[in-house]
Write a structure and sequence with these properties.
heterodimer; A: mainly alpha; MetI-like fold; globular; B: mainly alpha; 2 domains; 0% strand
Protein backbone atom coordinates (compact mmCIF):
# COMPACT_ATOMS: atom_id res chain seq x y z
CA UNK A 1 0.00 0.00 0.00
CA UNK A 2 1.28 3.45 -0.69
CA UNK A 3 2.00 5.64 2.33
CA UNK A 4 -0.64 8.22 1.44
CA UNK A 5 -3.37 5.58 1.40
CA UNK A 6 -2.17 4.20 4.73
CA UNK A 7 -2.47 7.65 6.22
CA UNK A 8 -5.94 8.20 4.78
CA UNK A 9 -7.19 4.89 6.12
CA UNK A 10 -5.88 5.66 9.59
CA UNK A 11 -7.11 9.22 9.67
CA UNK A 12 -10.79 8.74 10.56
CA UNK A 13 -10.21 6.77 13.75
CA UNK A 14 -7.40 9.04 14.93
CA UNK A 15 -9.17 12.30 14.14
CA UNK A 16 -12.49 11.22 15.62
CA UNK A 17 -10.92 9.96 18.84
CA UNK A 18 -8.87 13.13 19.08
CA UNK A 19 -12.02 15.24 18.81
CA UNK A 20 -13.82 12.94 21.22
CA UNK A 21 -11.04 13.45 23.74
CA UNK A 22 -10.05 17.09 23.30
CA UNK A 23 -13.39 18.85 22.88
CA UNK A 24 -15.19 17.60 26.01
CA UNK A 25 -11.99 17.64 28.04
CA UNK A 26 -11.19 21.25 27.30
CA UNK A 27 -14.81 22.21 27.90
CA UNK A 28 -14.71 20.52 31.31
CA UNK A 29 -11.51 22.35 32.19
CA UNK A 30 -12.99 25.63 30.97
CA UNK A 31 -16.28 25.15 32.90
CA UNK A 32 -14.31 24.35 36.02
CA UNK A 33 -12.80 27.84 36.04
CA UNK A 34 -15.96 29.88 35.54
CA UNK A 35 -19.00 30.64 37.63
CA UNK A 36 -21.67 28.56 35.95
CA UNK A 37 -24.85 27.54 37.72
CA UNK A 38 -27.95 26.78 35.67
CA UNK A 39 -30.14 28.19 38.45
CA UNK A 40 -28.35 31.55 38.40
CA UNK A 41 -27.51 32.19 34.76
CA UNK A 42 -26.82 35.88 35.39
CA UNK A 43 -23.77 35.15 37.54
CA UNK A 44 -20.89 34.58 35.17
CA UNK A 45 -17.18 35.09 34.78
CA UNK A 46 -13.78 33.62 35.46
CA UNK A 47 -13.27 32.62 39.08
CA UNK A 48 -9.97 30.76 38.97
CA UNK A 49 -9.84 27.78 41.26
CA UNK A 50 -12.86 28.66 43.42
CA UNK A 51 -14.91 25.77 42.02
CA UNK A 52 -12.18 23.35 43.05
CA UNK A 53 -12.07 24.89 46.49
CA UNK A 54 -15.83 24.64 46.71
CA UNK A 55 -15.74 21.01 45.57
CA UNK A 56 -13.20 19.80 48.09
CA UNK A 57 -14.50 21.87 51.00
CA UNK A 58 -17.99 20.46 50.41
CA UNK A 59 -18.77 18.38 53.54
CA UNK A 60 -19.68 15.49 51.21
CA UNK A 61 -16.32 15.47 49.44
CA UNK A 62 -14.23 13.76 52.08
CA UNK A 63 -16.77 11.00 52.86
CA UNK A 64 -17.23 10.44 49.12
CA UNK A 65 -13.48 10.12 48.62
CA UNK A 66 -13.20 7.65 51.50
CA UNK A 67 -16.22 5.72 50.19
CA UNK A 68 -14.64 5.55 46.75
CA UNK A 69 -11.40 4.18 48.16
CA UNK A 70 -13.16 1.68 50.46
CA UNK A 71 -15.41 0.57 47.60
CA UNK A 72 -12.58 0.09 45.13
CA UNK A 73 -10.24 -1.49 47.70
CA UNK A 74 -12.75 -3.97 49.11
CA UNK A 75 -14.00 -5.05 45.71
CA UNK A 76 -10.42 -5.59 44.56
CA UNK A 77 -9.51 -7.78 47.52
CA UNK A 78 -12.73 -9.82 47.29
CA UNK A 79 -12.66 -10.33 43.53
CA UNK A 80 -8.96 -11.22 43.31
CA UNK A 81 -8.95 -13.63 46.27
CA UNK A 82 -12.23 -15.30 45.30
CA UNK A 83 -11.31 -15.24 41.64
CA UNK A 84 -8.00 -16.99 42.35
CA UNK A 85 -9.61 -19.60 44.59
CA UNK A 86 -12.40 -20.46 42.17
CA UNK A 87 -10.21 -20.51 39.08
CA UNK A 88 -7.82 -22.92 40.84
CA UNK A 89 -10.74 -25.14 41.86
CA UNK A 90 -12.08 -25.31 38.35
CA UNK A 91 -8.68 -25.77 36.70
CA UNK A 92 -9.02 -29.57 36.46
CA UNK A 93 -11.01 -31.90 34.24
CA UNK A 94 -14.37 -32.95 35.66
CA UNK A 95 -17.82 -33.86 34.45
CA UNK A 96 -19.89 -30.78 33.66
CA UNK A 97 -16.96 -28.39 33.84
CA UNK A 98 -18.22 -26.42 30.85
CA UNK A 99 -21.56 -25.85 32.56
CA UNK A 100 -19.95 -24.81 35.85
CA UNK A 101 -17.72 -22.41 33.93
CA UNK A 102 -20.67 -20.80 32.17
CA UNK A 103 -22.54 -20.46 35.48
CA UNK A 104 -19.52 -18.82 37.08
CA UNK A 105 -18.99 -16.14 34.45
CA UNK A 106 -22.65 -15.34 33.73
CA UNK A 107 -23.04 -12.58 36.37
CA UNK A 108 -20.55 -10.49 34.41
CA UNK A 109 -23.01 -10.24 31.52
CA UNK A 110 -25.98 -9.09 33.55
CA UNK A 111 -26.61 -5.38 33.03
CA UNK A 112 -25.66 -3.38 36.15
CA UNK A 113 -29.14 -1.93 36.68
CA UNK A 114 -30.69 -5.41 36.61
CA UNK A 115 -28.19 -6.86 39.03
CA UNK A 116 -28.68 -3.90 41.36
CA UNK A 117 -32.46 -4.42 41.36
CA UNK A 118 -32.21 -8.18 41.87
CA UNK A 119 -29.97 -7.70 44.90
CA UNK A 120 -31.93 -4.76 46.26
CA UNK A 121 -35.37 -6.35 46.00
CA UNK A 122 -35.32 -10.09 45.85
CA UNK A 123 -32.25 -10.79 47.95
CA UNK A 124 -31.61 -7.89 50.34
CA UNK A 125 -35.10 -6.57 51.02
CA UNK A 126 -35.55 -6.68 54.82
CA UNK A 127 -39.19 -7.81 54.60
CA UNK A 128 -39.68 -9.97 51.54
CA UNK A 129 -36.13 -10.71 50.51
CA UNK A 130 -34.47 -14.09 50.52
CA UNK A 131 -31.75 -13.11 52.99
CA UNK A 132 -34.41 -11.94 55.44
CA UNK A 133 -36.20 -15.28 55.07
CA UNK A 134 -32.93 -17.12 55.71
CA UNK A 135 -32.23 -14.99 58.78
CA UNK A 136 -35.73 -15.60 60.12
CA UNK A 137 -35.41 -19.33 59.51
CA UNK A 138 -32.19 -19.32 61.52
CA UNK A 139 -33.84 -17.29 64.27
CA UNK A 140 -31.88 -14.11 63.60
CA UNK A 141 -33.09 -10.58 62.98
CA UNK A 142 -33.01 -9.74 59.27
CA UNK A 143 -30.42 -7.12 58.33
CA UNK A 144 -31.66 -3.88 56.78
CA UNK A 145 -28.94 -4.10 54.16
CA UNK A 146 -29.37 -0.87 52.23
CA UNK A 147 -30.30 1.10 55.34
CA UNK A 148 -27.69 -0.12 57.80
CA UNK A 149 -24.89 -1.39 55.56
CA UNK A 150 -25.29 0.64 52.35
CA UNK A 151 -21.66 0.67 51.26
CA UNK A 152 -21.17 -2.99 52.13
CA UNK A 153 -24.26 -3.83 50.07
CA UNK A 154 -22.85 -2.02 47.05
CA UNK A 155 -19.53 -3.80 47.57
CA UNK A 156 -21.32 -7.18 47.56
CA UNK A 157 -23.24 -6.37 44.37
CA UNK A 158 -20.18 -5.12 42.51
CA UNK A 159 -18.07 -8.06 43.71
CA UNK A 160 -20.74 -10.46 42.48
CA UNK A 161 -20.48 -8.92 39.04
CA UNK A 162 -16.72 -8.63 38.86
CA UNK A 163 -15.47 -11.83 40.52
CA UNK A 164 -16.58 -13.63 37.32
CA UNK A 165 -14.34 -11.27 35.38
CA UNK A 166 -11.36 -12.21 37.58
CA UNK A 167 -12.27 -15.90 37.27
CA UNK A 168 -12.45 -15.63 33.49
CA UNK A 169 -9.06 -13.93 33.21
CA UNK A 170 -7.32 -16.23 35.71
CA UNK A 171 -8.89 -19.33 34.14
CA UNK A 172 -7.59 -18.28 30.73
CA UNK A 173 -4.12 -17.63 32.12
CA UNK A 174 -3.99 -20.91 34.03
CA UNK A 175 -4.55 -22.79 30.78
CA UNK A 176 -1.23 -21.52 29.51
CA UNK A 177 0.62 -22.67 32.61
CA UNK A 178 3.34 -25.25 32.04
CA UNK A 179 1.75 -28.53 33.14
CA UNK A 180 4.99 -30.53 32.95
CA UNK A 181 6.61 -28.15 35.39
CA UNK A 182 3.73 -28.72 37.79
CA UNK A 183 3.96 -32.49 37.41
CA UNK A 184 7.69 -32.38 38.00
CA UNK A 185 7.11 -30.34 41.15
CA UNK A 186 4.52 -32.86 42.34
CA UNK A 187 6.96 -35.73 41.76
CA UNK A 188 9.57 -33.83 43.75
CA UNK A 189 7.09 -33.78 46.60
CA UNK A 190 6.11 -30.11 46.44
CA UNK A 191 2.78 -29.63 48.23
CA UNK A 192 -0.15 -27.55 47.08
CA UNK A 193 0.91 -24.35 48.84
CA UNK A 194 4.51 -24.51 47.79
CA UNK A 195 3.43 -25.10 44.18
CA UNK A 196 0.95 -22.26 44.50
CA UNK A 197 3.53 -19.78 45.78
CA UNK A 198 6.44 -20.84 43.60
CA UNK A 199 4.77 -21.74 40.31
CA UNK A 200 1.16 -20.61 40.02
CA UNK A 201 1.36 -17.21 41.66
CA UNK A 202 4.40 -16.05 39.68
CA UNK A 203 2.67 -17.29 36.51
CA UNK A 204 -0.43 -15.28 37.43
CA UNK A 205 1.43 -12.16 38.58
CA UNK A 206 0.80 -10.31 35.34
CA UNK A 207 -2.87 -11.23 34.93
CA UNK A 208 -3.44 -10.30 38.58
CA UNK A 209 -1.91 -6.87 38.15
CA UNK A 210 -3.91 -6.34 34.94
CA UNK A 211 -7.15 -7.40 36.64
CA UNK A 212 -6.44 -5.01 39.52
CA UNK A 213 -5.67 -2.03 37.28
CA UNK A 214 -8.64 -2.57 34.97
CA UNK A 215 -11.02 -3.00 37.85
CA UNK A 216 -9.68 0.19 39.42
CA UNK A 217 -10.51 2.12 36.26
CA UNK A 218 -14.04 0.70 36.15
CA UNK A 219 -14.76 0.86 39.88
CA UNK A 220 -13.68 4.49 40.23
CA UNK A 221 -16.62 5.12 37.89
CA UNK A 222 -19.28 2.98 39.60
CA UNK A 223 -22.61 4.68 39.10
CA UNK A 224 -25.61 2.54 38.11
CA UNK A 225 -25.50 0.29 41.19
CA UNK A 226 -25.63 3.33 43.51
CA UNK A 227 -28.17 5.17 41.37
CA UNK A 228 -30.60 2.25 41.45
CA UNK A 229 -30.21 1.06 45.05
CA UNK A 230 -29.23 3.65 47.66
CA UNK A 231 -29.06 6.91 45.69
CA UNK A 232 -25.91 7.55 47.66
CA UNK A 233 -27.63 7.39 51.03
CA UNK A 234 -28.53 7.24 53.78
CA UNK A 235 -26.93 10.68 54.00
CA UNK A 236 -23.76 10.29 51.99
CA UNK A 237 -22.89 6.86 53.36
CA UNK A 238 -22.77 5.24 49.93
CA UNK A 239 -21.93 8.27 47.78
CA UNK A 240 -18.77 7.86 45.75
CA UNK A 241 -17.05 10.60 43.75
CA UNK A 242 -18.84 9.73 40.52
CA UNK A 243 -22.21 9.92 42.23
CA UNK A 244 -21.27 13.15 44.04
CA UNK A 245 -20.38 14.82 40.73
CA UNK A 246 -23.59 13.50 39.19
CA UNK A 247 -25.56 15.06 42.08
CA UNK A 248 -23.73 18.38 41.69
CA UNK A 249 -24.60 18.54 38.02
CA UNK A 250 -28.08 17.04 37.83
CA UNK A 251 -29.58 18.15 41.11
CA UNK A 252 -27.64 21.22 42.20
CA UNK A 253 -27.22 22.33 38.57
CA UNK A 254 -23.80 23.67 39.43
CA UNK A 255 -21.87 23.10 36.22
CA UNK A 256 -18.72 24.81 37.49
CA UNK A 257 -18.38 22.71 40.62
CA UNK A 258 -19.39 19.50 38.83
CA UNK A 259 -16.71 20.18 36.22
CA UNK A 260 -14.08 20.80 38.91
CA UNK A 261 -15.09 17.42 40.35
CA UNK A 262 -14.84 15.95 36.87
CA UNK A 263 -11.27 17.18 36.50
CA UNK A 264 -10.47 15.62 39.87
CA UNK A 265 -11.98 12.28 38.73
CA UNK A 266 -9.96 12.42 35.50
CA UNK A 267 -6.72 13.02 37.40
CA UNK A 268 -7.49 10.14 39.76
CA UNK A 269 -8.24 7.78 36.85
CA UNK A 270 -5.10 8.91 35.04
CA UNK A 271 -2.89 7.94 37.94
CA UNK A 272 -4.16 4.38 37.53
CA UNK A 273 -4.13 4.60 33.73
CA UNK A 274 -0.40 5.37 33.62
CA UNK A 275 0.39 2.04 35.27
CA UNK A 276 -2.16 0.21 33.15
CA UNK A 277 -0.83 1.64 29.90
CA UNK A 278 2.67 0.61 30.91
CA UNK A 279 1.53 -2.95 31.61
CA UNK A 280 -0.36 -3.17 28.31
CA UNK A 281 2.57 -1.70 26.38
CA UNK A 282 4.69 -4.70 27.31
CA UNK A 283 2.37 -7.11 25.48
CA UNK A 284 1.41 -5.05 22.46
CA UNK A 285 3.64 -6.04 19.57
CA UNK A 286 3.58 -4.05 16.38
CA UNK B 1 -4.76 -44.38 52.32
CA UNK B 2 -2.26 -44.41 49.50
CA UNK B 3 -1.03 -41.22 47.85
CA UNK B 4 -3.10 -41.96 44.81
CA UNK B 5 -6.29 -42.35 46.81
CA UNK B 6 -5.54 -39.13 48.65
CA UNK B 7 -5.13 -37.30 45.34
CA UNK B 8 -8.45 -38.64 44.13
CA UNK B 9 -10.15 -37.39 47.26
CA UNK B 10 -8.48 -34.00 47.07
CA UNK B 11 -9.71 -33.75 43.51
CA UNK B 12 -13.26 -34.69 44.51
CA UNK B 13 -13.30 -32.08 47.24
CA UNK B 14 -12.05 -29.42 44.82
CA UNK B 15 -14.74 -30.36 42.29
CA UNK B 16 -17.36 -30.23 45.04
CA UNK B 17 -16.35 -26.70 46.01
CA UNK B 18 -16.14 -25.65 42.36
CA UNK B 19 -19.79 -26.66 42.00
CA UNK B 20 -20.72 -24.88 45.25
CA UNK B 21 -19.13 -21.70 43.89
CA UNK B 22 -20.84 -22.11 40.52
CA UNK B 23 -24.26 -22.60 42.14
CA UNK B 24 -23.80 -19.64 44.50
CA UNK B 25 -22.71 -17.28 41.73
CA UNK B 26 -25.47 -18.38 39.42
CA UNK B 27 -28.17 -18.33 42.10
CA UNK B 28 -29.24 -14.65 41.80
CA UNK B 29 -29.76 -15.14 38.07
CA UNK B 30 -31.71 -18.34 38.64
CA UNK B 31 -33.82 -16.56 41.27
CA UNK B 32 -34.51 -13.65 38.91
CA UNK B 33 -35.64 -15.97 36.11
CA UNK B 34 -37.78 -17.94 38.57
CA UNK B 35 -39.45 -14.79 39.93
CA UNK B 36 -40.35 -13.80 36.38
CA UNK B 37 -42.66 -16.84 36.28
CA UNK B 38 -44.44 -16.02 39.55
CA UNK B 39 -47.52 -13.92 40.16
CA UNK B 40 -46.89 -10.63 41.99
CA UNK B 41 -48.20 -12.14 45.21
CA UNK B 42 -46.01 -15.21 44.90
CA UNK B 43 -43.01 -12.98 44.19
CA UNK B 44 -43.23 -11.26 47.58
CA UNK B 45 -44.46 -14.29 49.51
CA UNK B 46 -42.92 -14.94 52.92
CA UNK B 47 -41.17 -17.34 53.04
CA UNK B 48 -40.03 -17.12 49.40
CA UNK B 49 -41.45 -19.82 47.16
CA UNK B 50 -39.23 -22.28 45.37
CA UNK B 51 -42.08 -24.43 44.08
CA UNK B 52 -45.15 -22.88 42.53
CA UNK B 53 -47.30 -23.09 39.48
CA UNK B 54 -45.45 -21.04 36.84
CA UNK B 55 -47.34 -18.39 34.93
CA UNK B 56 -46.50 -16.61 31.70
CA UNK B 57 -48.72 -13.70 32.66
CA UNK B 58 -45.79 -11.32 33.31
CA UNK B 59 -44.28 -11.87 29.92
CA UNK B 60 -47.56 -11.29 28.13
CA UNK B 61 -48.43 -8.27 30.29
CA UNK B 62 -45.09 -6.51 29.89
CA UNK B 63 -46.12 -5.10 26.58
CA UNK B 64 -49.57 -4.06 27.66
CA UNK B 65 -48.45 -2.25 30.80
CA UNK B 66 -45.08 -0.93 29.73
CA UNK B 67 -43.38 -0.02 26.51
CA UNK B 68 -41.03 -2.94 26.71
CA UNK B 69 -40.70 -3.46 22.97
CA UNK B 70 -39.86 0.19 22.41
CA UNK B 71 -37.00 0.06 24.90
CA UNK B 72 -35.82 -3.30 23.57
CA UNK B 73 -35.80 -1.84 20.08
CA UNK B 74 -33.84 1.19 21.35
CA UNK B 75 -31.29 -1.14 22.91
CA UNK B 76 -30.98 -3.12 19.70
CA UNK B 77 -30.64 -0.01 17.52
CA UNK B 78 -28.14 1.76 19.76
CA UNK B 79 -25.91 -1.22 20.46
CA UNK B 80 -25.93 -2.57 16.91
CA UNK B 81 -25.68 0.96 15.49
CA UNK B 82 -22.82 1.94 17.78
CA UNK B 83 -21.02 -1.30 16.99
CA UNK B 84 -21.49 -0.90 13.24
CA UNK B 85 -20.23 2.68 13.32
CA UNK B 86 -17.20 1.67 15.38
CA UNK B 87 -16.43 -1.16 12.96
CA UNK B 88 -16.75 1.10 9.91
CA UNK B 89 -14.25 3.53 11.40
CA UNK B 90 -11.95 0.87 12.83
CA UNK B 91 -11.64 -1.69 10.02
CA UNK B 92 -9.73 0.52 7.53
CA UNK B 93 -7.54 1.99 10.27
CA UNK B 94 -6.73 -1.30 11.96
CA UNK B 95 -6.06 -2.81 8.55
CA UNK B 96 -3.64 -0.05 7.58
CA UNK B 97 -1.88 -0.20 10.93
CA UNK B 98 -1.55 -3.98 10.99
CA UNK B 99 -0.16 -4.36 7.48
CA UNK B 100 1.85 -1.16 7.33
CA UNK B 101 2.98 -0.49 10.87
CA UNK B 102 4.96 2.70 11.22
CA UNK B 103 7.11 4.26 13.87
CA UNK B 104 4.11 5.63 15.73
CA UNK B 105 1.66 2.76 15.34
CA UNK B 106 2.21 1.39 18.81
CA UNK B 107 2.02 4.82 20.43
CA UNK B 108 -1.17 5.62 18.54
CA UNK B 109 -2.81 2.39 19.71
CA UNK B 110 -1.73 3.01 23.29
CA UNK B 111 -3.07 6.54 23.14
CA UNK B 112 -6.38 5.23 21.80
CA UNK B 113 -6.62 2.81 24.70
CA UNK B 114 -5.88 5.62 27.13
CA UNK B 115 -8.96 7.52 25.93
CA UNK B 116 -11.02 4.53 27.04
CA UNK B 117 -9.75 5.10 30.56
CA UNK B 118 -11.21 8.59 30.84
CA UNK B 119 -14.01 8.52 33.41
CA UNK B 120 -17.38 9.32 31.82
CA UNK B 121 -18.29 11.59 34.71
CA UNK B 122 -15.30 13.79 33.85
CA UNK B 123 -16.95 14.83 30.60
CA UNK B 124 -20.55 14.62 31.80
CA UNK B 125 -21.37 18.35 31.53
CA UNK B 126 -19.84 19.00 28.09
CA UNK B 127 -21.47 15.95 26.53
CA UNK B 128 -24.77 16.85 28.16
CA UNK B 129 -24.68 20.40 26.75
CA UNK B 130 -23.46 19.31 23.34
CA UNK B 131 -26.33 16.83 23.16
CA UNK B 132 -28.85 19.44 24.29
CA UNK B 133 -27.65 22.18 21.95
CA UNK B 134 -27.43 19.95 18.92
CA UNK B 135 -30.94 18.65 19.48
CA UNK B 136 -29.59 15.15 19.98
CA UNK B 137 -30.59 14.85 23.64
CA UNK B 138 -32.85 11.83 24.16
CA UNK B 139 -32.29 10.51 20.64
CA UNK B 140 -30.90 7.17 19.61
CA UNK B 141 -28.35 8.97 17.44
CA UNK B 142 -26.48 10.44 20.40
CA UNK B 143 -26.16 7.03 22.02
CA UNK B 144 -25.01 5.48 18.74
CA UNK B 145 -22.26 8.11 18.45
CA UNK B 146 -21.17 7.81 22.08
CA UNK B 147 -21.21 4.00 22.04
CA UNK B 148 -19.16 4.00 18.87
CA UNK B 149 -16.59 6.34 20.40
CA UNK B 150 -16.27 4.62 23.78
CA UNK B 151 -15.84 1.21 22.14
CA UNK B 152 -13.65 2.33 19.25
CA UNK B 153 -10.34 1.84 21.12
CA UNK B 154 -11.15 -1.74 22.11
CA UNK B 155 -12.51 -2.57 18.66
CA UNK B 156 -9.37 -1.12 17.07
CA UNK B 157 -7.09 -3.15 19.31
CA UNK B 158 -8.81 -6.49 18.76
CA UNK B 159 -9.10 -5.99 15.03
CA UNK B 160 -5.45 -4.95 14.90
CA UNK B 161 -4.47 -8.18 16.66
CA UNK B 162 -6.64 -10.21 14.28
CA UNK B 163 -5.27 -8.58 11.14
CA UNK B 164 -1.73 -9.08 12.38
CA UNK B 165 -2.29 -12.82 12.54
CA UNK B 166 -3.08 -12.99 8.82
CA UNK B 167 0.12 -14.20 7.14
CA UNK B 168 1.66 -11.47 5.01
CA UNK B 169 2.67 -14.04 2.37
CA UNK B 170 -0.95 -14.42 1.30
CA UNK B 171 -1.16 -10.71 0.63
CA UNK B 172 2.12 -10.68 -1.24
CA UNK B 173 0.94 -13.52 -3.42
CA UNK B 174 -2.22 -11.67 -4.36
CA UNK B 175 -0.21 -8.51 -5.03
CA UNK B 176 2.01 -10.44 -7.43
CA UNK B 177 -1.15 -11.29 -9.30
CA UNK B 178 -1.79 -7.57 -9.66
CA UNK B 179 -4.82 -7.31 -7.37
CA UNK B 180 -5.79 -3.75 -6.45
CA UNK B 181 -5.79 -2.71 -2.78
CA UNK B 182 -9.56 -2.57 -2.69
CA UNK B 183 -9.93 -6.06 -4.13
CA UNK B 184 -7.16 -7.27 -1.88
CA UNK B 185 -9.18 -6.21 1.16
CA UNK B 186 -12.43 -7.53 -0.23
CA UNK B 187 -11.31 -10.86 -1.65
CA UNK B 188 -8.31 -11.86 0.45
CA UNK B 189 -8.38 -10.17 3.84
CA UNK B 190 -12.07 -9.96 4.64
CA UNK B 191 -12.80 -13.68 4.21
CA UNK B 192 -9.89 -14.46 6.52
CA UNK B 193 -10.77 -11.77 9.06
CA UNK B 194 -14.49 -12.39 9.03
CA UNK B 195 -14.50 -14.51 12.19
CA UNK B 196 -12.42 -11.95 14.01
CA UNK B 197 -14.69 -9.10 12.97
CA UNK B 198 -17.81 -11.00 13.98
CA UNK B 199 -16.52 -11.77 17.45
CA UNK B 200 -15.26 -8.22 17.89
CA UNK B 201 -18.75 -7.05 17.02
CA UNK B 202 -20.19 -9.45 19.56
CA UNK B 203 -18.03 -8.01 22.34
CA UNK B 204 -18.88 -4.45 21.35
CA UNK B 205 -22.62 -5.26 21.34
CA UNK B 206 -22.35 -6.73 24.84
CA UNK B 207 -20.60 -3.63 26.17
CA UNK B 208 -23.10 -1.26 24.51
CA UNK B 209 -26.11 -3.28 25.64
CA UNK B 210 -25.07 -3.12 29.29
CA UNK B 211 -23.93 0.50 29.24
CA UNK B 212 -25.79 2.36 31.97
CA UNK B 213 -24.24 5.78 32.59
CA UNK B 214 -24.87 7.61 29.33
CA UNK B 215 -28.19 5.94 28.68
CA UNK B 216 -29.46 7.12 32.08
CA UNK B 217 -28.00 10.62 31.81
CA UNK B 218 -28.77 11.40 28.16
CA UNK B 219 -32.24 9.93 27.69
CA UNK B 220 -35.61 10.51 29.29
CA UNK B 221 -38.30 8.61 27.42
CA UNK B 222 -37.87 8.46 23.67
CA UNK B 223 -34.42 6.92 23.39
CA UNK B 224 -34.18 5.08 26.72
CA UNK B 225 -32.54 1.71 26.43
CA UNK B 226 -33.29 -1.34 28.54
CA UNK B 227 -30.66 -0.40 31.13
CA UNK B 228 -32.34 2.96 31.70
CA UNK B 229 -35.80 1.37 31.58
CA UNK B 230 -34.87 -1.14 34.28
CA UNK B 231 -33.37 1.68 36.35
CA UNK B 232 -36.76 3.41 36.29
CA UNK B 233 -38.15 0.57 38.43
CA UNK B 234 -36.00 1.65 41.36
CA UNK B 235 -38.67 3.79 43.03
CA UNK B 236 -41.71 1.72 43.99
CA UNK B 237 -40.30 -0.57 46.59
CA UNK B 238 -41.76 -4.03 46.86
CA UNK B 239 -43.90 -3.54 43.80
CA UNK B 240 -43.89 -5.40 40.53
CA UNK B 241 -41.05 -7.75 41.44
CA UNK B 242 -42.39 -10.40 39.12
CA UNK B 243 -42.79 -8.01 36.23
CA UNK B 244 -39.37 -6.45 36.75
CA UNK B 245 -37.90 -9.95 36.83
CA UNK B 246 -39.64 -10.87 33.60
CA UNK B 247 -38.34 -7.70 31.95
CA UNK B 248 -34.85 -8.32 33.33
CA UNK B 249 -34.85 -11.91 32.13
CA UNK B 250 -35.77 -10.88 28.61
CA UNK B 251 -33.27 -8.02 28.69
CA UNK B 252 -30.35 -10.15 29.86
CA UNK B 253 -30.93 -13.50 28.16
CA UNK B 254 -29.59 -12.65 24.68
CA UNK B 255 -26.54 -10.87 26.07
CA UNK B 256 -25.64 -13.70 28.46
CA UNK B 257 -25.70 -16.07 25.49
CA UNK B 258 -23.58 -13.62 23.45
CA UNK B 259 -21.21 -13.49 26.40
CA UNK B 260 -20.75 -17.24 26.48
CA UNK B 261 -19.96 -17.16 22.76
CA UNK B 262 -17.52 -14.28 22.98
CA UNK B 263 -15.48 -15.33 26.02
CA UNK B 264 -12.16 -15.27 24.22
CA UNK B 265 -12.66 -11.82 22.73
CA UNK B 266 -13.94 -10.63 26.07
CA UNK B 267 -10.72 -11.64 27.79
CA UNK B 268 -8.71 -9.88 25.13
CA UNK B 269 -10.94 -6.84 24.86
CA UNK B 270 -11.49 -6.25 28.56
CA UNK B 271 -7.78 -6.54 29.33
CA UNK B 272 -6.88 -4.26 26.41
CA UNK B 273 -5.02 -7.16 24.83
CA UNK B 274 -2.77 -7.77 27.84
CA UNK B 275 -4.20 -11.26 28.46
CA UNK B 276 -4.97 -13.47 25.47
Amino acid sequence: MNPALVRWLQAPSIVLLLIWMIVPLSMTIYFSTIRYNLLYPERKGFIGLSNYEFFYTDPSFFPALINTLVLVGSVLVITVVLGLAVSLLIDRPFWGRGVARVMLISPFFIMPTVSALVWKNMLMDPNNGLFAALANALGMTPIEWLQDLPLASIIIMVSWQWTPFAILIFMTSLQSQDQEQKEAATLDGAGFWSQFFHLTLPHLARPISIVILIQMIFHLAIFAEIFVTTSGGPGVQSTNLTYLIYIQSQQAFDVGVASAGGVFAIILANIVAIFLIRAIGKTLTV
Amino acid sequence: MTDKQRDIWKNRIAVFFAWVAALLFFFPIFWMVLTGFKTENQAIAIPPLLFFEPTLENFTEINERTNYSKFALNSIITSFGGTLLALLIAIPSAYAMAFNPGRWTKDILMWMLSTKMLPAVGVLMPIYFLAQNSGLYDTKAVLVIIYAMINLPIVMLILFNYFREIPKEILEASRMDGTSTFNEIRQVVMPLAWGGIASTALLSIILCWNEAFWSIVLTTTDASTLTAFVASFQAPEGLFWAKVSAVSTLACAPIVVFGWLAQKQLVQGMTFGAVK
